[in-house]
Specification:
Number of domains: 4
Cofactor: Zn(2+)
InterPro entries: ADAMTS/ADAMTS-like, ADAMTS_ADAMTS-like, ADAMTS_CR_2, Adt-1/2-like_dom, MetalloPept_cat_dom_sf, TSP1_rpt, TSP1_rpt_sf
Low-confidence stretches: none
Strand order of the largest sheet: 3-4-5
Protein name: A disintegrin and metalloproteinase with thrombospondin motifs gon-1
Distance between the termini: 50 Å
Order of helices and strands: HHHEEEEEEEHEEEEE
Shape: elongated
Number of helices: 4
Subcellular location: Secreted
Helix content: under 10%
Pfam family, one: TSP_1
């Protein structure tokens, strides 16, 4: 999870998506403008991407004790459970207490290990919501607000409408486009439930055929790292990367690349671009870092398959079957026994040993 001022969050700044007036949970440092109750749009993006990729499986196990506030229990704020002095003690130690002469709620000012005469200190965090700050008033998001518990009633989140489909992830061939919806109709508040269900939906998009001889999509992604050896001692500075397909399906949507001269592969990206084939001999497509099932029609979740003739959803009626048996004695050494026709598929070759003996000095090569 990057800090909000990290370059990875640059796309969310300066375009109206983020307010420059305050900082959020993942701010690099805290000050009086920090809102520790709110994730930035950048943080939300990376959290959703993480869970969308199926990496949050560790959170699916049932807890041994349910500590979530139930629907029929009144929502309790942290400041109702811990006084301002207790909050200081959690931050600065047991001898600290609330500073009596500093403003309330905005920042938690606490005494030093001696007393307030030696000055007070803060870590720029506000008082906990619900901390009493005056008669019939409590701290709420850094302000000493009128105490009104009705404002804290649970609001369960509801999904908003699906947005329009975005652009295709590729300019030719088969790609993926996505549509999003947000849990903002209304947003969950004060312990209310977050929306359950898919936040992002995907759809295949088939464009014009890529030019003959054009590199495949995974090759293009490896090519972006040409000339970067990442300080590896055995990799030249003018390295040219080529794709290496993973052996396991769960790794098939990570970008592994290798050099032309080495069989050693390196993971250069956590996930390939959406629409990248999971492998060289499958129609399945990578979506958000996961290998998703696709049919021979290149449609996600389709069950259509090629028939034995290589025709999508065919009935094998166009196949031309060829078979034969070779029993002639061949001279010692290499001998050509068969030329496989161009375009042949579903090839099966069986070798029978002499008298079904387990020892046979004949070897087939292609």
């Amino acid at each position: 999870m990057p800090h909000d001022n990290d370059e990875k969050c640059g796309q969310f700044r300066g375009n109206g998506k983020e307010s420059p007036e305050h900082m959020n949970v993942m701010s690099r440092m805290l000050d009086h403008n920090t809102l520790p109750w709110i994730w930035s749009n950048c943080s939300r993006y990376y959290l959703f991407e993480y869970f969308q990729a199926g990496l949050g499986a560790c959170l699916e196990d049932e807890p041994w004790k349910n500590k979530i506030v139930e629907d029929d229990v009144e929502f309790t704020l942290a400041g109702e459970l811990f006084s301002a002095t207790q909050q200081c003690q959690y931050v600065f130690g047991k001898t600290s207490s609330i500073c009596p002469y500093m403003p309330k709620c905005k920042r938690l000012w606490c005494t030093t290990t001696l007393d307030e005469k030696e000055g007070c200190r803060t870590q720029h965090m506000p008082w906990a919501d619900g901390t009493p700050c005056d008669k019939n008033r409590w701290c709420l998001r850094g302000d000493c607000a009128l105490k009104n518990r009705d404002e804290l009633r649970k609001i369960h989140g509801q999904w908003g409408a699906w947005q329009s489909w975005g652009t295709c992830s590729r300019t030719c061939g088969v790609g993926v486009k996505r549509s999003e919806r947000f849990c903002d109709s209304p947003k969950p508040q004060y312990g209310g439930h977050f929306c359950i269900g898919e936040r992002v939906r995907y759809e295949s998009c088939k464009l014009r055929e890529c030019p003959l001889g054009a590199p495949d999509f995974r090759s293009e992604q490896c090519k972006q790292f040409n000339g970067k050896n990442f300080g590896l001692p055995d990799i030249p500075q003018d390295v040219e990367w080529i794709p290496k397909y993973a052996d396991r399906r769960e790794d098939s949507c990570k970008l592994f690349c290798q050099t032309h001269t080495s069989g050693v592969s390196y993971q250069l990206k956590e996930k390939v671009e959406d629409g990248t084939p999971c492998g060289p001999e499958t129609y399945d497509i990578c979506v958000s870092g996961k290998c998703r099932v696709a049919g021979c029609d290149y449609v996600l979740n389709s069950t259509l398959k090629d028939d034995w003739c290589g025709i999508c959803n065919g009935d094998n009626s166009t196949c031309q079957m060829r078979s034969g048996t070779l029993e002639d004695v061949q001279p010692w050494g290499y001998s050509d026994i068969l030329v496989i026709p161009d375009g042949a598929a579903r090839i099966e070759i069986h070798q029978k040993s002499y008298h079904n003996s387990p020892n046979d000095d004949n070897y087939l090569g292609i």
